[in-house]
Amino acid sequence: MKAIVCKEFAPVEQLEFTDVPAPSAEKGQVVINVEAAGVNFPDSLLVQGLYQMKPELPFIPGSEVAGTVAEVGEGVPHLKVGQNVIGLCMLGGYAEQVALPASHTIPIPDGIPLDEASALVTAHATAHHALKQRAQLSADDVLVVTGAAGGTGLAAVQIGKIMGAKVIAVCSTDDKCEVAKQNGADICINYSNEDLKAAIKEHTNGKGADVVYECVGGDMFHTCSRSMAWNGRLLVIGFAGGEIPKFPVNLALVKGFAVLGVFWGSFTQHQPQDFMANMKELLTWYVQGKIKVVVDERFSLENAIAAINKVTDRKVKGKVVIKP
Question: What is the DSSP string of 236-254?
Answer without folding.
Answer: E---TTS--PPP-THHHHH
